[in-house]
Amino acid sequence: MVKVKKILVVFGTRPEAIKMVPVVKELEKHTDVFEVKVCVTAQHREMLDQVLAVFNLKPDFDLNLMAENQDLFDITAKVLLGIRDVLKSYKPDLVLVHGDTTTSMATSMAAFYMHIRIGHVEAGLRTYDLSSPWPEEMNRQVTDRLCDYYFAPTETSRKNLIDEGININKIFVTGNTVIDTLLMAVDLIANNKDIKHTINELLSGFGYNLKESTENAHKLILVTGHRRESFGQGFLNICLALKNIAENHPEVDIVYPVHLNPNVQKPVFKLLANNSNVFLLPPLDYLPFVYLMQKCYLILTDSGGIQEEAPSLGKPVLVMREVTERPEAVDNGAVKLVGTNPEKILSMTSKLLDDSKFYDQMSRSSNPYGDGKAAYYIVKALA
Ligand code: UD1
Ligand code: UDP
Fold first, then answer.
1. Which residues contact 235 (CB under 8 A, 6 or more apart)?
2. Which of 85, 94, 123, 106 lies closest to 43, judged by CA?
3. Which of 79, 152, 163, 203 could, after both became Cys, cross-link 106 (CB 3.0–4.6 A)?
4. 5-173 and 194-363 agree in CATH topology
5. C-alpha–C-alpha distance, residues 66 and 337, integer Å
6. Which tens digit of pLDDT belongs to each residue from 303-318?
7. Measuring CA to CA, how many Å separate 302 from each of 44, 50, 207, 295, 337?
8. Which of 225, 261, 229 is nearest to 66 (CA)?
9. Which of the four pLDDT bands, split at 50, 70 and 90, describes residue 97?
10. Active site includes 326?
């Protein structure tokens, strides 16, 4: 008889939760092989709980560590000590972490110190520039030095790992689990007419009435931003760019669910609250956000996950960063890097709004990040 393996899945932030939900659900289908428990560090609180609620996921351990305007020392130290206690009490055979957050890096360190095996979901992404994204490039490189099993989303990430000397037998190319979750959300929205009504009511409650887009009117530009390396001048530039877009293009609605980080909230609300075609919203639940991605004309963001989701929905993305660890959609034309220079952001946005040929080239639907079965491949490899 096969001994059931104890797997502890650890995550802490909104995007990790979105991307680990399908893995947890898939592991739970195989109780003959795995016992799975979920530990959230709650590096995020409200934004994490939004995801847990949508997918009805109840953590077995909750470190509840978030503090207002926390710094990297706070998170690293609290995760390291908190996870130590969870590992001591649960004694898993394997810890699964995701991506490049401080939760993932510090959890990997804790598991390493206790000689517990580690699997890294979304392994092998690289910019090879430790200053961008900061501190994520360090987090993902450290996690990949410590882990035992690598679930690389693409061939590019597999190649990065091989070039770093990782044993090819430990690497599994699975696609990105974000596509599993996205397809689940798209399906839920398509097959439940009440959801669209509920989403419209929710948006309306936040002061935004979603209008049907026509050729020249009410084009919706969806915006998100939160990167630490852009705090200060970078965010002032992004806000200036959005203000200029709003003024130069009165026909567009700019809809911006603002990240709860005070370093984002302060400049964004100070500089953009008084523009009549800029709508500043709280962070949205996953389904309303996916619905807005489906309805929008283009996306301006610095998010990793959105760079992966938008090409599947055929939406052009302008990435407000200088480099990306996700080159696949840049290579196939769906994503362009515009940095945080206000003139560049405005000129590329205007080009997409005014040049339909350019828009059509970028909005061809493509999906370099997986077929929606990444969690299945990950669990198969683990089994
Ligand atoms: C974190 C991750 C980043 C990831 C991002 C996703 C690190 C270092 N950063 O950055 O890689 O891309 O999450 O969004 O791991 N806050 C709340 N409620 C929430 C969430 C955040 O109030 O639900 C506020 C708090 O004041 C908190 C602050 O935002 O202290 C910063 O949160 P933190 O997780 O440290 O950084 P993020 O910028 O969210
Ligand atoms: N997202 C969401 N609500 C929002 C904004 C984003 O559910 O208001 C989702 C989005 O679809 C994507 C993820 O959150 O799956 C991206 O998270 P974030 O940008 O915070 O982190 P990153 O991906 O950059 O690490």
1. 225, 263, 264, 267, 268, 340
2. 106
3. 79
4. yes
5. 31
6. 999 999 999 999 999 9
7. 18, 21, 24, 19, 9
8. 261
9. very high
10. no
Is CATH 3.40.50.2300 the right assignment for the domain spanning 194-363?
A: no
292 has pLDDT over 80: yes
- pTM, rounded to two decimals: 0.98
**Is domain 5-173 given the CATH code 3.40.50.2000 in the classification?**
yes
As a whole number of angstroms, the distance between CA 287 and CA 53 comes to 11
* Cβ atoms 122, 104 nearer than 8 A: no
The pair of three-digit structure tokens given for residue 363, joined into one six-digit string? 């909005």
User: Does the beta carbon of 309 sit less than 6 angstroms from any atom of ligand 2?
Assistant: yes
326, 156 Cβ separation under 8 angstroms: no
pLDDT tens for each residue of 128-143: 999 999 999 999 999 9
Q: What's residue 1's pLDDT? A: 62
| Atom 36 of ligand 1: nearest residue by CA position | 261
Question: Active site includes 122?
Answer: yes
Catalytic residue among 16, 26, 122, 309: 122
At residue 366, what is the residue type?
S
